């Protein structure tokens, strides 16, 4: 009798285990593109968590790149994943929050399918633990396989400003959040790298790598100002300037002086 009961119990346990596994699998299979878009956006506007903060403290671009690739690559096309990392789209808000020693949390969110079947319009309200609140709106494009091909913001500056710690120096220059530049150009062979202060309030910085044979040796920094100013500085590893077809000049900003290929459009 005891053996019989044991056998029945074992069968019931095995059956329950199979049912649980099947339910988990069904849940993954029933995950929609809208669910994936929500997961990606929510992760962009949350944190940074302790693991991300440790990576930024290490200052290793390779480790940061590997972390974000693991987190986001399953939801983005391969080409857009590369583009999103090169333009700091995936890391931007985490870096700014880390630099300002604050954290983000999603308060409210709304994601709706647009009139285009593969596009989604989003509206997020993000709170920062310094007391600031910001609305972030935009659109996400996906392909027929449900992979994200583009994320762009129709309103995103408010969140960047929620981290603002702009300070004016005694020389009339402006400090800015350069955490993203530190992570990307941590290799000291990039000389002279980037200035730590600017002659205007910086609204954002783009970082572009070179193309083809120059992609691992060339970096371009584009500094956008609050009032429409713009300055583009290009530098290479081991100081291999001047670049072919590009004029260089010595640029002094604050205490930093370096030779760059320059496109200056300040007003």
Give the number of helices: 8
Q: Helix proportion of residues, in percent?
A: 25-40%
The total count of strands amounts to 12
Overall tally of structural domains: 2
Low-confidence stretches: 1-28
Keywords: Signal
Protein name: DUF4367 domain-containing protein
Signal peptide: 1-20
Organism: Halobacillus kuroshimensis
Could you explain how this protein is built, in words?
Keywords: Signal. It comes from Halobacillus kuroshimensis. This is DUF4367 domain-containing protein. The protein is of the alpha+beta class. It folds into two domains: 33-162, Nuclear Transport Factor 2, Chain: A (Roll); 174-264, no CATH class. The chain contains eight helices and twelve strands. The strands form three sheets. Strands 6, 8, 9, 10, 11 and 12 form a six-stranded antiparallel beta sheet that branches. A four-stranded antiparallel beta sheet has the order 1-2-3-4. A hairpin with a 5-residue loop joins strand 3 and strand 4. The model is unreliable at 1-28 (pLDDT under 50).
Summarize the structure.
The chain is α+β, with helices and mostly antiparallel strands and 267 residues long. The chain has helices spanning 2-29, 33-44, 50-58, 61-72, 78-86, 92-99, 157-162, 179-184, and strands at 104-113, 119-128, 133-142, 148-155, 174-175, 190-191, 197-198, 202-209, 218-225, 230-237, 248-253, 256-264.
């Amino acid at each position: 009798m005891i053996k019989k009961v044991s056998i029945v119990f074992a069968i019931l346990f095995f059956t329950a285990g199979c049912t649980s596994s099947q339910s988990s699998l069904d849940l993954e299979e029933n995950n929609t593109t809208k669910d994936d878009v929500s997961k990606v956006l929510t992760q962009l506007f949350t944190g940074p968590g302790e693991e991300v903060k440790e990576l930024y403290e290490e200052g290793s671009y390779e480790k940061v790149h590997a972390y974000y690739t693991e987190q986001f690559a399953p939801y983005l096309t391969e080409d857009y994943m590369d583009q999103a990392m090169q333009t700091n789209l995936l890391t931007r808000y985490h870096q700014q929050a880390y630099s300002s020693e604050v954290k983000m949390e999603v308060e409210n969110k709304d994601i709706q399918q647009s009139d285009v079947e593969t596009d989604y319009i989003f509206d997020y309200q993000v709170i920062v633990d310094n007391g600031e609140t910001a609305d972030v709106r935009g659109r996400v494009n996906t392909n027929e396989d449900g992979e994200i091909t583009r994320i762009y913001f129709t309103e995103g500056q408010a969140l960047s400003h929620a981290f603002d710690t702009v300070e004016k120096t005694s020389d009339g220059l402006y400090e800015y959040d350069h955490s993203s530049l530190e992570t990307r150009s941590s290799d000291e062979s990039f000389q002279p790298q980037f200035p730590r202060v600017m002659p205007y309030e910086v609204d954002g910085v783009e970082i572009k790598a070179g193309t083809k044979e120059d992609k691992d040796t060339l970096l371009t920094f584009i500094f956008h100002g609050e009032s429409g100013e713009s300055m583009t500085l290009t530098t290479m590893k081991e100081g291999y300037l001047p670049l072919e077809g590009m004029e260089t000049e010595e640029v002094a900003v604050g205490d930093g002086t370096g030779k760059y290929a320059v496109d200056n459009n300040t007003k």
